[in-house]
Design a protein that fits this description.
single chain; 70 residues; mainly alpha; 74% helix; rod-shaped
Length: 70
């Protein structure tokens, strides 16, 4: 009886780790795409220069990013 609970908990944790691994991969890919768009390709800057709304950004975020920070 004393070994059943630890085995159950370890099995449950193993299952959770397996479920999280694909999500971690997806999140990593999203983060890399955003980084590339903003800091390599400068998509928000180009959109602003062309008078377009940066894709995926609300007006509020565009406004906040356009303000100078002193």
């Amino acid at each position: 009886m004393s070994l059943i609970l630890p085995r159950y908990l370890l099995g449950t944790l193993d299952d959770k780790i397996e479920l999280n691994q694909p999500m971690n991969g997806t999140n990593e890919a999203i983060a890399q795409a955003i980084f590339k768009s903003w800091f390599i390709d400068f998509d928000p800057v180009r959109a602003k220069m062309e008078g377009r709304q940066p894709e995926g950004m609300s007006q509020e975020v565009v406004f906040l990013l356009s303000q100078k920070i002193y």
